[in-house]
C-alpha cells in the first residue's frame, strides 16, 4: 500500500474487554466501562491527529440488554454523564457526533440527550465520530429493507446501501476488535464486507496510541484488492480501489 493510503479514512472499533479489565482488578464491571470512556477519548484525539476522518465505535449492542440489570443501568448512566462532559470538548476539537442505532426503546430523556449532542457538533468537519448505541448489524439491514419496502422502492444492493444507518460515511477501511476475541459480533455486517480486520489482545481500557499505531501500521502493509488480482491493481497504478 502506498504511503498516501497508509492511513485509513475510516476506522471502526469493537471496544471489547472493559468488564474483564475491571474483574482482573477486583472492581465492579462498570468501573471498566468508565475506564473505557477514557480510552475512547484518547483514541478520538489520536485518530484526529493522524488524519483519520471517520471513527465508528461499538458502544452498546442490541444484545447487551441481556446483561445484568445493574450493568445495563450503569452503562445508561455512564452514557448520559459522558455526553454532558465530553460534548463541549468534542465540539471545540472539531469532532462531529452521530449516534447510530435504534432509539425507539430508549427513554425520552436519553433520546433528547443524543439529539442535542448531534445538534451541538453538527457543524464540525475534522472527524466524524459514529457511536453505535443499541445497534446491531442485522437490525441495520432489517431497518434498511423495511424503509425501502415502506417507500415502495426496489430492494437492491445500491438502494440498501443508501438506506443503511451509516450511509453518511464510506464503509470502514479498517475494523479493529480489542480484547482477544476473533469475531465481529453483529457489528457493521453490511459495511465491513471489504474491511481489513485487525484483532488486538489488549483489553479496550489498555488500548492506547501505541496500539492504534500498530493497527494502522499493519493496515498499511496490506494489499486491498476488492475482488481483483494483484496484477490488475499494479497495472491500474493504484492499490486503493473503491469498493
Largest sheet: 6 strands, parallel
Number of domain units: 1
Report the CATH architecture.
3-Layer(aba) Sandwich
CATH superfamily: Decaprenyl diphosphate synthase-like
- Structural Rg: 18 Å
**CATH topology-level name:** Undecaprenyl pyrophosphate synthetase
Q: What is the average of the pLDDT values?
A: 90
Count of separate DSSP helical elements: 8
The secondary structure category is alpha/beta
Strand content: 5-15%
Give structural notes:
The chain is an alpha/beta fold. The protein has a single domain (3-135, 171-236), classed as Decaprenyl diphosphate synthase-like (Undecaprenyl pyrophosphate synthetase). It has helices spanning 18-23, 29-50, 69-92, 108-120, 137-150, 157-163, 209-220, 230-236, and strands at residues 10-14, 54-61, 95-100, 127-135, 174-177, 196-199. Strand 3 (95-100), helix 4 and strand 4 (127-135) form a beta-alpha-beta unit. The radius of gyration is 18 Å and the shape is globular. 34% of the residues are buried. Residues 239-243 have low confidence and may be disordered.
